[in-house]
Write a structure and sequence with these properties.
It contains 17 helices and 13 strands. It has 572 residues and is of the alpha+beta class.
């Protein structure tokens, strides 16, 4: 198996992850910024309930909290005890929540800005985890501009999975693999919950639970712990509401907002993304959902500690209602196993990344290839929807050939289309334009997390296929670039022939009704709207039709797939 190699910093690059290629380096110290108006809202959300609770307490005293005698094993049909299936799924859920949170942080660090608008215009972010002095519109790197890749941040592998910069591909593999098992475990839990009497623990059956939960909350906020019912038999109203919200509201919301970031879904079902406002709003809600889970875990653990650690651990670990130390010992051991699993995950990532990539291709791509890839991109936007700023990405080519062609406005450019075809051709830009023009205004999804809407004009790839007539055994199309990959070497990527034939798959020579700029891929760039941005090769040098991607590069389907272990078909 291949593994990252390199001296220090980000493995595989020889680069200190804290170093900068910026000509006038900005402040690289950790930075957190949130809009002042949101600080006000956050403070109000935190303080107003506390103030109301204290006002009620000072004016009327503590409210009555409905209690259940702890010596009653069951009240009004409420189940008691925690069966084995509940205890096991509870533990498995904890493991995968930790993996999801850690891998999610790695993904967030690749574009550490969150927005409520789909355009991701610099300055419109509501929270930013990058230094304030960085302004992508004016900052200048050795490439001549500040790209989205330059904006990514270092994050420690002690906190994130896998950590370090430019590892979003590996982080995505862990995130989606963990999500599959987390969802499967959650579905099993809910099915067994609803199929047994255990659902009565979580699902409210009366609106009185709201007033009862507030009564409990007043006690907590005024530092008067209420008489707690024995959790082995039932929860108090606030616990019940909290567990119900996490299981039946927060968890489904995380799944739905995650799907709303899929280019295949967004560009086929335009209405779906609008359920949350837009793609970026879904990303922001997804982040807030992560904070919700972490906040719940902190509160949950705190209450376990305060209300009888030994008895509570026996409840959920061994299923008994006593004060023996067995549950606590086994619980501590279980937490140690989770810590060991996190360490093992980091080891696998850096020592066996191909194994991780192959596993993700079998499990994750097996599902996305079946359910997402067949969704043909079809949604379009209006001219008024075009983003005022579109993040540049990638390194402008430095080859003498591209520089010479660019100096002559690409009048001497020839696109070579060859490989397993009946009629290989070389086409000038004028000849390409003569094949017919398709225009589309579409939503771009970057693997880093940002998005933007732009108009693209170009020739349909289906028209190219019609012209060169590939052999029947052809399955993939290789797009070779004048540009280089992150780890040097010519950039390239592949598309399935099926995806290349989608109506919105084009070779674009126009962006926003003007000739394609050098930063954005001149003379030609690829648009395949059910994929993430790294699959849409810029600065196209040639197109090659092949039977398989195995002989191309290292054989994993593209430059980023070879060097950074990215997805082969990223529909999400």
């Amino acid at each position: 198996m291949n593994s990252f190699k390199g001296a220090g910093g980000r493995p595989g690059s020889g680069e200190d992850p804290k170093s900068s290629s910026v000509l006038n380096p900005p402040d690289r110290r950790p930075y957190f910024w949130m809009r002042p108006s949101l600080w006000v809202i956050l403070i109000l959300v935190a303080l107003v309930p506390v103030a109301v609770a204290w006002l009620q307490y000072l004016m009327f005293g503590l409210p009555n909290v409905p209690t259940t005698p702890n010596n009653l094993p069951e009240v009004a049909g409420t189940p008691h005890g925690f069966p084995v299936w509940l205890r096991v799924t509870h533990y498995v859920n904890f493991l995968f929540i930790i993996l999801l949170a850690r891998s999610g942080l790695s993904i967030l660090a690749d574009h550490p800005r969150l927005y409520w608008n789909v355009h991701c215009r610099p300055g419109s972010d509501w929270i930013r985890l990058t230094p304030k002095v960085i302004d992508p519109k004016t900052a200048c790197t050795v490439n001549g501009y500040w790209s989205a890749r330059d904006d990514s941040r270092y994050i420690s592998p002690w906190l994130a999975l896998p950590g370090f910069r430019h590892t979003v591909g590996l982080g995505r593999h862990w995130h989606f693999l963990s999500a599959l098992f987390w969802v499967a475990n959650g579905l099993l839990f809910v099915a067994l919950l609803l199929g047994t009497g255990q659902w009565r623990r979580l699902v409210p059956t009366s609106w009185s639970i709201l007033s009862d939960a507030w009564a409990v909350q007043v006690h907590y906020m005024t530092f008067h712990l209420p008489v707690e019912p024995n959790g082995f038999y039932r929860y108090n109203a606030l616990q019940q509401l909290a567990y119900f919200g996490v299981v039946f509201i927060l968890a489904p919301l995380q799944i739905l907002t995650g799907l709303a970031m899929s280019p295949a879904i967004d560009n086929h079902f335009k209405w779906y993304g609008r359920l949350f406002g837009n793609r970026q709003a879904a990303r922001s809600i997804h982040f807030l959902g992560l904070l919700g889970f972490l906040g719940f875990i902190m509160a949950h653990v705190t209450m376990v500690l305060l209300t009888g650690l030994a008895r509570n651990m026996n409840h959920i670990v061994v299923g008994t209602d006593d004060l023996s130390p067995r549950g606590l010992i086994l619980g501590v051991f279980g937490v140690g196993v989770v810590v060991a699993a996190c360490a093992l995950a980091n080891w696998v990532t850096w020592r066996q990344p191909r194994l991780l990539q192959a596993t993700a291709r079998v499990l994750v791509q097996g599902l996305t290839g079946r359910f997402l890839d067949p969704l043909k991109p079809r949604d379009q936007y209006t001219r008024e929807d075009i983003s005022p700023y579109f993040w540049p990405n990638g390194k402008i080519p430095t080859s003498a050939e591209w520089t010479r062609l660019a100096a002559n406005a690409f009048r001497d450019y020839r696109l070579l289309v060859h490989g397993a075809v009946v009629n290989p051709v070389e086409l000038s830009l004028d000849e390409i334009k003569a094949l017919g023009k398709r225009e589309q205004i579409t939503l771009h999804h970057c693997i880093q997390g940002w998005s933007g809407i732009a108009e693209w004009g170009g020739v349909s790839i289906a028209r190219i296929v019609e012209l060169v007539r590939p052999y029947p055994e052809v399955t993939r199309v290789v797009f070779h670039s004048f540009g280089e990959g992150l780890h040097s070497g010519a950039y390239y990527d592949t598309q399935t022939l099926q995806d290349a034939l989608h109506p919105q798959s084009i070779l674009a020579y126009e962006m926003n009704y003007e000739p394609l700029g050098q930063v954005y891929g001149a003379p030609l760039r690829l648009r395949v709207e059910n994929q993430l941005g790294y699959k849409m090769v810029k600065w196209i040098r040639s197109i090659e039709f092949v039977v398989s991607a195995k002989p191309v590069g290292l054989g994993f389907g593209g430059k980023n797939e070879d060097d950074e272990y990215y997805d082969l078909v990223p529909n999400i």
